[in-house]
Amino acid sequence: MSAGLAAPVRRAGRLALCLLLLGSTAALPGAAVAQRPAQSEPGAASAAPTSAVALAIRNQVGGRLKDFYRQRGYWPLWIVDETPGPQAAALVDVIETVGVDGLDPERYSPDRLRRLIDEARTGDARALAYLEIALSGALADVVRDMREPHVEIRYLEEQLEPKRARPDEILRRAALAKSTLDYVRTLGWMSPLYVQLRDALAATDPGQGDAGVTIPPGALLRPGMADERVDLLRLRLGLPPGDVFDDALAARVRRFQAARGMPADGMVGARTLAALNAGDGALASDRSALLRLNLERARLLPDAWTRHVVVDAAAARLWYYGGGAEQGTMRVVVGTRETQTPMMAGTIRYATLNPYWNVPVDLVRKRIAPKVVSGTSLERQGYEALSDWTNDASVIPSSSIDWRAVVAGSVEPRVRELPGRGNSMGSVKFMFPNDLGIYLHDTPQKNLFAKPDRHFSNGCVRLEDAGRLGRWLFDRPLTPESSAPEQHVPVPDPVPVYLMYFTASPIEDGVTYVADAYGRDTPALEQLASR
Q1: Any idea which residues carry the catalytic annotation?
Q2: Which of 204, 74, 79, 191 is closest to 143 using CA atoms?
Q3: Which of 60, 42, 64 is nearest to 138 (CA)?
Q4: How far apart are CA 347 and CA 155, in angstroms?
Q5: Which of 316, 297, 311, 308 is nearest to 348 (CA)?
Q6: How far apart are CA 177 and CA 170, in angstroms?
Q7: Selection from 264, 260, 257, 263 nearest residue 283 by Cα
């Protein structure tokens, strides 16, 4: 076959195949045939909903949801194999628990949605379409309300300020998820940090189990075993009856332990048993209030699909996210109580290799000037003096400065540390423009990362592994072109960074409680209570 004929024949073959697949629907005047988008629900690939469902959706949908369905050929999000998919019930399950999020479940009509699910199991196209539209409307409402912030943070750029997403944006994100079912079950529209705090709060909620149940003493209860005491444990933690210590129970035990600051090993020994039987009245109340406060803080964060960095100044830890999951974490050093790392959100726009460090004037007075007075020159200490604090400042001879006046505090020169091995900025700093002079940077003081309390900086964030963060930001190793100082390298796709404060701090199996190093919790709790 000649090359000139091959393309028309292939097109004709595809057309014939399309007509065969469309069958009788192709004969309907003006019928909109569902174009199947990428679908990941179990069983969807082998048996898709019929075009009758798509046609029914087209006939029923309107208003705020119409654009979403029109752009996907009216293909359903919640229907699999001409019946409600598991993601439908999963959404209702989530709705019934949104009291944990400070929302009213009845606003989203969970009983009505369950009734519509039952009615749609008959396979009637109109009932399926009605359910489809109702579920999409409910998801849009839940996501918008759950993402509504109630605490304040300073936004350095207007585009970072939260805006109420349009329903079509919310639904499109759900449709693009690898699995709509997993997306709903894991609250994929929220930050993973939010979800961890939410799970811990649910574990302390009196509605999650019967706090009046007493579990008698006995042998260690561990996953995999069967015991009559396991049935009581399940009742205490709000799980269905049974005498088997399964994975679901182990997860609930770990959350219970983490919420109370205990090692989250998922086994019930004497200490965990005592906490379960004590009911933890006052402690649970205090922890519940603290979790709610930190949940509100986490509500400010984007979902894990949005590429971003989070710094927790309370626990001195950093995470970075993208592609729907956490992609890395590391320890950091943050500000002292006197020089606090603020809560704010900015955008990392460039890295500076071989950076200078502008030494704070109080450190010049306390640490550098006395050594100059004693005979150790400024240059020998690895510093140089500048004419002023502008970007056009010039280097001046250190001999032109009255160092005794600097010690006395009557003169405040600008001094910067030269790049090099011992430079306090290390080899790189990551810049998100702000008027407080806060940024993320490398450090030669690696010993500080081994300390449990890492509040030592003047407000900036020192990184345990600046090279790893640089590779993630730039998708390549960051290497200076020469030994020249202050080499600025733009981030190809600027990344938001959120400086947060979590005194209930997420860990692998739940949360742990850390000291309120900056004394922010009490006024924040009072402000929330007055809402």
Answers
A1: 441, 460
A2: 191
A3: 64
A4: 10
A5: 308
A6: 11
A7: 260
Instruction: Determine phi and psi for 44, rounding to 5 degrees.
Output: -70, -30
Nearest to 437 by CA among 528, 357, 530, 382: 357
C-alpha to C-alpha distances, 362 to 79, 207, 213, 403, nearest whole angstrom: 65, 53, 59, 13
Rounded distance between C-alpha atoms, residue 201 and residue 204, angstroms: 5
> Which of 306, 331, 311, 296 minimizes the C-alpha distance to 432?
311
Residue 137: name the closest of 36, 61, 250 by CA: 61
- pTM, whole model, 2 decimals? 0.76
Q: Smallest Cα–Cα separation from 217: which of 232, 237, 234, 235?
A: 232
What region does 231 belong to: left with phi over 0, alpha with psi -120 to 50, or beta? Answer: alpha
HSE (CB half, 13 Å, CA atoms) of 479?
3
Residue 257: HSE in the Cβ half-sphere, 13 Å Cα cutoff = 21
C-beta of residue 38 within 8 angstroms of C-beta of residue 73: no
**Structure token pair of residue 439:** 């940024």
Query: What is the pLDDT of the chain when averaged over all its residues?
Result: 87
| Beta strands, E only, 8-134 | 79-80, 83-84
Length of the chain (residues):
531
**Are 501 and 334 a contacting pair, CB within 8 Å?**
no
Q: What is the pLDDT of residues 6-43, one digit of tens each?
A: 333 333 343 333 333 333 333 322 222 333 554 434 33
Q: 382-437: per-residue pLDDT in tens?
A: 999 999 999 899 999 999 999 999 999 999 999 999 998 889 999 999 999 999 99
The predicted-structure confidence for 461-495, as pLDDT tens digits, reads as follows 999 999 999 999 999 999 999 999 999 999 999 99
Closest CA to 301 of 311, 316, 287: 311
